[in-house]
Design brief:
heterodimer, A: mainly beta, globular, B: 116 residues, mainly beta, 7-stranded mixed sheet
């Protein structure tokens, strides 16, 4: 089955700096890569996603890059703000048809220091 | 956008009792619902996949007689933890495929179960 590794497990940055979280996946059949933000005591919230036919996607301060050859993808948050502090999970799925299970990374706890 | 409503958000029960967690898709039909378990400071682990009108599919190592899943309608899936024990204490989260062409998944807000 799919295996997703995520690094780092914790990340502290100063407000305004950038944060980068990296993930690798094992199954070359995976074609959908969402990123989730989870605040304490809440369910994950989708913040951005990318499909395998795209190398990069950006949404305001958040961007995701995908390297299919190397089977890794990254989340980039620029101009970080204290409200960005949360746990971030990457995930991989064979999303075609939408009913494939999602494999999550181990999570990154991001702390933005004011 | 698609919303999955999960209840209760928190529940405390005594050992040996059963607890039911409900997830409802509010503005779309969810023929599939994924149920996850999350221990503190850990990732989400898929427990089972429920499909409306058929038996749930359980992941390896998950006791289907302990974690009963019912997907009776296109908008409701339930997880019942039977004969709960303290080691069942965890954060349980449901998720349904979204409406964006099948890509994307909408998560419930989670249920914190504490068994005393």
């Amino acid at each position: 089955g799919e295996n997703v590794e995520q690094h780092p497990s914790t990340l502290s940055v100063q407000e305004g700096d950038s944060a980068v979280i990296k993930c690798t996946y094992s199954d070359s059949a995976s074609n959908y890569f969402p990123w989730y933000k989870q605040e304490l005591g809440k369910g994950p919230q989708l913040i951005i996603d990318i499909r395998s036919n795209v190398g990069e996607k950006k949404d305001q301060r958040i961007a995701v890059t995908l390297n299919k050859t190397a089977k890794h993808f990254s989340l980039h948050i620029t101009e970080t703000q204290p409200e960005d502090s949360a746990v971030y999970f990457c995930a991989a799925s064979m999303g075609s048809g939408g009913y494939q299970k999602v494999t999550f990374g181990t999570g990154t706890k991001l702390q933005v220091i004011p | 956008g698609a919303v999955v409503s999960q209840h209760p958000s928190r529940v405390i029960c005594k050992s040996g009792t059963s607890v039911k967690i409900e997830c409802r898709s509010l503005d779309f039909q969810a023929t599939t619902m994924f149920w996850y378990r999350q221990f503190p400071k850990q990732s989400l682990m898929l427990m089972a996949t429920s499909n409306e009108g058929s038996k749930a599919t359980y992941e390896q190592g998950v006791e289907k007689d302990k974690f009963l899943i019912n997907h009776a309608s296109l908008t409701l899936s339930t997880l019942t933890v039977t004969s709960a024990h303290p080691e069942d204490s965890s954060f349980y989260i449901c998720s349904a495929p979204g409406t964006g062409g099948g890509y994307g998944y909408t998560f419930g807000s989670g249920t914190r179960l504490t068994v005393v």
